[in-house]
Inverse folding.
């Protein structure tokens, strides 16, 4: 079985032990991801690009992944597939010729 | 090889073809995750909890996972491990006895 | 003197007493605004649209305004002017005929 | 009349011409603030601290202020008052003695 499914199953078990599925509508799961993403950002606030606490980084990244996996599971999405599909789309917006070495957004290339 | 490593390798290949690693410092990768999380939130803005475009959901979730996997790879983190570690921590903050059926944050339980 | 300038002067005084201007580059001020916006969102997480703690709402909104006013001041922006300019722009994207009673984004009208 | 009330009245008028109040529940207004804050952050993504487009900065800051003023108005909040109240609170968490010249969060001082 896939590693994505394995870890998602553990997250589902944790959620169901606490009878939390009732709160996990899609809008609130998306909101939770963004709140955790902001907690990750906070580790870097006023600081330089790499000056951070690795233990806190692990915790905040774990929280982001957790809610993202729960939202993916709710919609029966295969995570590697949706990533590959998006890479295909991004490959057209950011062709190697146009985008190599550039940080510009696709509509500015 | 783990599915997490497989998909991360594809993301690394996409990044390196475009010589983008130079931009991928930790602070900007975290920033990118939060920007994508906001784009996901935007699908739900002014709408009800489940009234969304599934194709857009897949794209925005894919973007969140992509930057999160790149940040995890940059710090050589094993994603299932950091999630399990965080679940252990969360299990203490949110014991089944105290947290079952409750949406309260741990410091309000 | 304008009320915006009065309250901004108090924020500047608070900042300078603590010798914090050195940290207040534009990127970090923007980051701070988004972190506070996420703390505001957190008051609503798993909850219904109006079920919140008014005292916490005041505190988080105050934080958002504080960093936004500091960023505006840094760039010598007159806040009412930039809002009116944006309303002019929005008035064209969201004409009354097309947008009345609709929650659609302008590119979907 | 206060400058805050003046500009808020214009925002209310814009909203009511389009019959948009029906969408402006507190949770969605908070969500809108965070989405605009992310659009502001995006101006700095992969870039240095001051390397930005000033016109875009004005637009995104204006959007943040607009939704924040609408949320404040919805709860009948006086913006300068809530900012002063928060500064009082912050003054205790970040006394000049402890916090001067430091970027540390209050619980790390």
């Amino acid at each position: 079985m896939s590693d994505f499914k394995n870890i998602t199953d553990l997250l589902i078990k944790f959620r169901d032990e606490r009878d939390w599925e009732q709160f996990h509508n899609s809008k609130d799961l998306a909101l939770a991801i963004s709140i955790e993403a902001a907690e990750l950002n906070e580790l870097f606030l006023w600081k330089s690009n790499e000056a951070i606490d690795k233990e806190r980084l692990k915790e905040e990244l774990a929280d982001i992944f957790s809610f993202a996996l729960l939202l993916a599971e709710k919609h029966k999405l295969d995570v590697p597939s949706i990533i590959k599909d998006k890479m295909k789309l991004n490959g057209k917006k950011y062709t190697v010729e146009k985008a190599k070495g550039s940080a510009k957004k696709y509509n500015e290339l």
